[in-house]
Amino acid sequence: MRTLVIIDAQNDFMPGGALAVPEGDKIVPLINELQSKFDLVIATQDWHPQGHASFASSHENGKEFEVIKLDGLDQVLWPDHCVQNTNGAEFHSGLKTSRIEAIFRKGTDLRIDSYSGFYDNAHLKSTGLAGYLKEKDATELYFVGLAADYCVYFSIKDALGEGFDCTLIEDGTRALKAEDFEKARIDILRKGGKVIKSGDLEL
Ligand code: VGL
Ligand code: ZN
Predict the structure, then answer these.
(1) Per-residue pLDDT averaged across 57-63, rounded?
(2) Band of pLDDT at residue 203, cut at 50, 70 and 90
(3) Residues near ligand 1 (Cβ within 6 A)
(4) Nearest C-alpha neighbor of 119 from the set 83, 160, 88
């Protein structure tokens, strides 16, 4: 079964948002159009409590985009973003949501960041997404959303590790940094994932 996985299409990752991805809003019409081509559509939301450990503002002298060690793991310190129940955490208002069957939220634990929609960054806690997809017989996953070099990339890595057939729809994503996406893209291909353009999608 072909499943569209929409990663973090939230206001804070859109131009004008707290952690804006350049041209992040450009993917919304395509994501809307693509939904009808899939048997199942699911979405993730970055969903942090206030004072989350990934926020620079939660650390004394923390600087945005600086990398620190957090419980032994490298952690980028981000601007406050996707705080639960704020407008920044809502989906882009243009995103069609009627076909989204389930929403998986991540980053909800105060001390642990979670780029992937499947597991937190330390791989300690599952969101339940892998089990949900397996129960639905959703073997072929197609990824779109934000940001290509973080949450989309980490979600694909985990999905490949779980044995799913994974394809990134390249024009359905945008990166925070182009050079990081280039590395991510090579890694996805090396790990057995596919990268296509939406025009290459066979119905
Ligand atoms: C993301 C950084 C921090 C993302 C989430 O959705 O790519 N990036 N939190
Ligand atoms: Zn986040």
Answers:
(1) 97
(2) low
(3) 8, 13, 46, 78, 115, 146-147, 150-151
(4) 160
The residue among 177, 175, 195, 174 whose CA lies nearest residue 28 is 174
Residues 6+ apart with CB under 8 A from 47: 82, 84, 89, 105, 106, 107, 108
Looking at domain 2-50+81-200, its CATH class is alpha beta
The β-bridge partners of 46 are: 106
- The Å distance, Cα 115 to ligand 1 centre, comes to 6
Q: Which of 6, 7, 13 has most ligand 1 atoms within 8 Å of CB, for mutation?
A: 13
| Residues in CB range of 54: below 8 A, 6 or more apart | 48, 70, 75, 76, 77, 78, 107, 113
Active site residues: 8, 106, 151
Q: How confident is the model at residue 202 (pLDDT cuts 50, 70, 90)?
A: confident
User: CA 7: distance to chain centroid?
Assistant: 4
Kindly report, residue by residue over 79-121, the tens digit of the pLDDT. Answer: 999 999 999 999 999 999 999 999 999 999 999 999 999 999 9
What's at 169, amino acid-wise? I
C-alpha to C-alpha distance for 142 and 4, rounded to whole angstroms = 5
Mean per-residue pLDDT for 49-64? Answer: 97
Taking the C-alpha atoms of residue 109 and residue 105, their distance in angstroms, rounded to an integer, is 11
Report ipTM for this prediction: 0.98
